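Batch manifest, entry 17 of 40.
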Amino acid sequence: MRLEPRPAPGMATLVLLPLGAILVTVLAASLLVLAAGASPLSVFGLVLKGAAGTQFALLETLTRATPLIFTGLAIAVAFRAKLWNIGAEAQLYAGAVATVVLGTGALPLPAPILVPLLMIAAVSAGALLLLGPAILKTRFGVDEVVTTLLLNFIMLLFVSMLLEGVLKDPMGLGWPQSQKLIAEARLPRIITGKRLHYGFVVAVFSAIVVWIIMKKTALGYEMRAVGHNPTAARFAGIPVNGVLLKTAILSGGLAALAGFSEVAGLKGNLTLDLSPGFGYSGIVVAMLAMLNPLGVVAAAIFVAGIFVGADAMSRTAGVPSYIANVMVATALLTMVTAIMLTRFKVRWR
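Output type: structure tokens
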């Protein structure tokens, strides 16, 4: 078997292969549901109902999708330029730390000023965190997959140290958590009494801005060119290293906004379990969206719906909610295969 480049994949190929990936995912999940002794149709119906069957369910899905949009955008931007950012989890926590440090009373400002300042601080923290691996890659050829992946663990240990030290809430009864953000630092809720906050609006707006950058600006063109062929891009006069550094700043800042939105919009303080893996799930979201910034929004809602719906389904059908993890992982593998097949033909010999 060998792979041959496709000259120009048709629209049918670009549409049918991703749909086939989703179909394979559903089939694999169905087999697991049957093995658990339940009906796939009833289980998938319960998942859909749990994700969007009521106003509460739909709002919970959108709330869960908010950080996934930010991390999905971060991965889509980086991967488009072939900067393999596996450290969105670390950048998320960097944004959360910056939000807590400045949002617990250090800046006694009104909300219209304080909230944008916290966003800028969070973006700066995430950008600086990814800038280090990007510089190591461009100056010394260090593999950014290794450095960004290891930064996830380093950042978690650093946050643990902070929560047991300088950031520990003296009124937290000994629990490793930070103080609550002041009211002026919080993002308001979209619907009173519900958990969905304006971080979702910021996430959708960010997706639109990133799409404009990628499609309508010189930086977006340079990122795509570097991603396709850095040697040819350098020959054409594009500063490849400079583009990678700009990409790192944008990607790290977007991932950090996930931490900001979770703290300022939902949790109100920082804990070590702030993220159940949003940084890693962002890779799945970006690949399901085929690195399209607008597609990231739909993919994030899809992945969030699977998790939220599976939680509700497991309480009713008795099928473990881990089926959601299997579906998301299978979707990633099949979508990566679909992307490969849109670019290459398989020849058997």
